[in-house]
Amino acid sequence: QVQLVESGGDLVQPGGSLKLSCVASGVSALMFSSLGIKWVRQAPGRELEWVGSISSSGMQAAYADSVRGRFTVSRDNAKMTVYLQMNSLKYDDTAVYLCKGGNNRGQGTQVTVSS
User: Fold this and answer.
1) What share of the chain in percent tops pLDDT 90?
2) What pLDDT does residue 65 have?
3) Alpha helices in 1-115 (DSSP H)
4) Which residues of the chain have a pLDDT value below 50?
5) CA–CA separation, 30 vs 35, rounded Å?
6) Angle of CA points 19, 83, 69, to nearest 5°
7) 66-99, pLDDT tens digit by residue?
8) Is the torsion defined by CA of 26, 103, 112, 21 positive or negative?
9) For the purposes of burial, counting CB atoms within 10 Å of the CB of 8, is it exposed (0-12), middle (13-18) or buried (19 or more)?
10) Exposure of 114 by Cβ count < 10 A (0-12 exposed, 13-18 middle, 19+ buried)?
11) Distance between CA 110 and CA 106 in Å, rounded?
12) How far is CA 81 from the centre of its chain?
């Protein structure tokens, strides 16, 4: 069963950038490379929101309207890591960000956008 651990969350000013990482363990790199991974976020008082997804090969990605053009999902299967590059951050991007693969998800990493 794959375990996922997110990192990279921080306090950042509006307009700033952050890069989150989601590192997998508990499975082989070959198994990891067969998994599509998605990023979701949970803001206080709001429902869980899908942010973006990346295919197992990394060749295809999709994004929510709220982040398209600002966020980029990428992956390095050799490192068993998926990334979320976040640019032009807004107050509304404040949330706990989690990665999900299969039926598993991590504990999340906090992103706070504040001046």
Assistant:
1) 97
2) 98
3) 29-32
4) none
5) 9
6) 70
7) 999 999 999 999 999 999 999 999 999 999 999 9
8) positive
9) middle
10) exposed
11) 12
12) 10
